[in-house]
Structures are given as structure tokens and as C-alpha cells.
Amino acid sequence: MFLQILLPPGEEKNVQDLAKKFVLNYRQGVITPTGRMKIKVNSFKNLPEGTGIISYRSRALGNVFSQKNIGLLMLGHRNASFTLSEKGKVAKKESTDLGMNWVLQKFVERTSVGLSKDDPCIAAALVEASKGNFTALRNLSRRNTPSGINSDLELFKSVLEVVRDEYCRALLRWVKNHVPLDEVLICGGTGEFVRRELTQYFQTESIPIVWNGGVVIPKSLDTVGLGERLADVWATHISYVRMLDENFCYERKQKLIPDSYSPAVNHLTSINRV
User: Fold this and answer.
1) Between helices 146-175 and 100-111, what is the axis angle to 10°?
2) pTM, rounded to two decimals
């Protein structure tokens, strides 16, 4: 098996230890829906986070890509990373701890009602609450009475508002170190959490946004609702398959990416359109 893994710039130094652990674990086999499968890792390759997105965008732009300074802002759970493609070449890679985990830590600390930042329900609830849906936020309460639950809900809403504002301020202070740009690609699940704030900021800076690099995930692949979190992995897979096709001089009878999955205009946010 040929194994590729995408890591933020700050975690690349740990790739050798990670490779050893992967190889050892795979020797024990992998549980699949059809039973245990034994896998031999023939090759382990580390790629910088965002590799798939940048490759996908470069193919969409063609020769224009080498004329632009393009920033890739990847907002994940543990951290945020930034990659600068300067005239077609990677000129900067940087990561910070400003991922969704930062928000969860602050939220749990300030509510003090027995919540754990490792509970996946909290992140989902905060995202839904940021869209105006407070049902999931209400469900975080451990109170037994309607009045107690309502009290917790008001606490959660007030804390979320403060933490969200602090997160956006910290994130934008970091982002400001990486402008001006010709365009910015914004990816990762946490990007949706602060989509409004990021859109407003980059519009003010007159920098067009391409969400997820224009990558659209085929519905048949997104079986558990990961959405935009699959974009970088999917685009990296596409690049790998294209490389194999080229090396083996293989011509596909069907398109690798159907027309319905190609980048569309509504995936772009420019200074004149939100």
C-alpha cells in the first residue's frame, strides 16, 4: 500500500515517528466492514497540509497560477496553517494553535458546568449556534429542570459570543501578517465557523476568496457528512491518480472529475459578491 498523509507545517518534524507507528499498527491488520484486512505499507509519504487544494487550484487557473501570489488558509481542529504560493512556488509555510480546539478550550473554561472540550458534541453545537440554531447548544446542559436548562443556555450563548469574538480577533491578527495577496484559498471545517468574519475582512482588503480552492466533494464519497473537511484529501487523491495516469501513459475513458464536480462560479467570493 502507498500511504500519504497531510500534516500542518508545525507537525512535519514528527513524521518519522508517525511513519513507524503506522507501519507497526498496520501489521496487526485493519478492521473493515467485510472483516480484518492485512496491509503491507510499501511507501509512506508526508505532504504539507493544503497540497491537494493548491494543486487543484493551479490546474483550474492554468498559466495564470504562476503569475499570482496565492495564500492558502487551512483552519482545522487542532491548529491553523498558512501556505504562500508566490508566482507558482511555495514561499512560506506557517502554523499556529488557532484551531477549533482553541475555541473549545476557552468555552469550556468559562462555562464551568462539567463540559469536556474532547466531547465532539460541543464543537457541533457551537457551529450550529453560530448559525442561529441554539437547540444543540441547549442540549449541552446537564440540568434537570427547564429553568436550569434555560439558565445554562443563556450562559452558553453569552460565553460563545465572547469567545467567538476573541477567536476572530486573534485569527485576524495572525492573518494580517500574510497580506497582500492576489487571492486566498480558505479551507477546513473551522473556516465555516468564522466564514462571515473572514469574508468581511478579505473584502475590505480587496482580496478574492476561493472557498476550499473550488473543490466540490462528490456526494457518493461524503458518506458521513464531513463536507469541506474532505476537500484537501480528495484533491490530493486526484493529483496522485493523475500522476499515475501520466507515468503509465494511461488514458481514461471517463473523466477523473465529472463536470458536475468542477469548480463553479458560486464557489468564489470576490470584492463585489458575497
Assistant:
1) 140
2) 0.80
